[in-house]
Design a protein that fits this description.
Blueprint lengths: L11 E2 L3 E2 L33 E6 L5 E3 L5 E7 L6 E6 L13 E8 L7 E8 L12 E7 L2 E5 L2 E6 L2 E8 L4 E6 L25 H4 L23 H21 L1
Antiparallel strand pairs: 1-2, 3-6, 4-5, 5-8, 6-7, 7-13, 8-12, 9-10, 9-13, 11-12
Length: 253
Amino acid sequence: MKATMYASEWYYYQGTYPTTTGISAQKVSKINIYIGGQITPTPTPTPTPTQTISEGAINASGIFTTNQTTGVTAVSFSRNITGNVTIVIGSIGDVELPKNLSYYNVYDIKTPENAGVIGISFSLPKNELPPNKTAEDIIVLHYKNETWYQLAVKDLKEDEGMITFSVNTNSTSPFVIAYNTAGLSFPFEEDPLPTINATEIPTNSTANITKTISTHTPAATKAPDTQPFDFSFIGLCIGLLAAAGIIALILKR
């Protein structure tokens, strides 16, 4: 201690005898022995997102509200359908995420069959984005037909620290809110078009396109008059005969 420590940090037993106990541990709870001179740290496990379930019925306006302030906030339908919507937050079952993907959360959404165009509204705290990312870097991925597709982000807004946006699709399954990662690209899913069932076509639609056909019989077409006889041809022939006679008379003399 005298050679390596400041005098203010020296320790004495009972204030008289130098001692090192003041800088040593009083109790030992664990001893690790490493062989080979290298220490391999134990990797920190990646935390698994908490799985929660949001479930409820579609209301008369065709909207299911999750009452969530972040993530999926509402699911809307373009057709008048009834049934329940189930959203599992933080799990997509056995579906494998793309590698090297940074994402906010995953959602497994289930809706009634033949629901038509489905709109999904999202909300994300701005301060939960990485420092080098902005709202324009957010992408939404949809797992469909064993392929990850990118959905067009619509109505992107920033208000009071929250980023809100929505997507449209015609089927539901795993969804991911991700950040645009360099080196990754996904095919875009085409915008869905509304479909109409045969039962939704008005029964009086044919009355609106019925056309009245006239029963009036048109007058018979008048045959063209007989072409008058052309006398100019006869005159031409007579002229040629007269000329031939004159020439023959001259040659005879």
